[in-house]
Amino acid sequence: MEKDDRQVAEWYNTLSGSYEELYGEEQSRKYETVLGFLGNRHFRVLIDLGCGTGTFLEKASEMYDYAIGIDLSAKMLRIARKRKTANTDYVLASSSSLPLKNSSSDCIVSISTAKAGSNLSGFIADLKRISREDSLLAFTLFQQPGLPNPESLPKPARSTTISDRETLYFLRLASCLE
Length: 178
Prior knowledge:
The chain has 178 residues and is an alpha/beta fold. The chain has a single domain (3-177), classed as 3-Layer(aba) Sandwich (Rossmann fold), CATH 3.40.50.150. Helices cover 36% and strands 30% of the residues. The chain has helices at 3-15, 19-38, 55-60, 74-82, 120-130, 173-177, and strands spanning 43-49, 64-71, 88-92, 105-115, 131-142, 158-161, 166-172. β2 (64-71), α4 and β3 (88-92) form a beta-alpha-beta unit. The longest helix is centred in the first third of the chain and has 20 residues, at 19-38. The protein is globular, with a radius of gyration of 15 Å.
């Protein structure tokens, strides 16, 4: 893990016991927006980057055959595992170095993990790498209010502002490769 990743992991390890109380309601609204976008689709493999306590995967469990929750906080993953969500595994890893095979997922969700900035193009490239050709991607970016979509973001991207500092993007990978 990089230095920044270690600091973030330490922060979430410390926060893990009170995370749901502090951020549960806010995160739940984001999850409902993503679930609305995904609709009635069913996925073979869904990846949740920054899965935290596993709440999104629990809510989405009827939508997938198998899911992998990835987080860099061991304590958050411990809480997620206690949910015992069927057909779901959890992996301790950073979203900046995904330990997944190429073309392994048909849906990737990443809520409140990425920032608009210099490493965004690498993040998007890694999402594309682990995505199957017709994958759906739903992810948020922390960015300053009023800024246009980042240039490194594939087109066409649908977006919706979900807070004064976070934008939710929806992409269908096949349309981004045309």
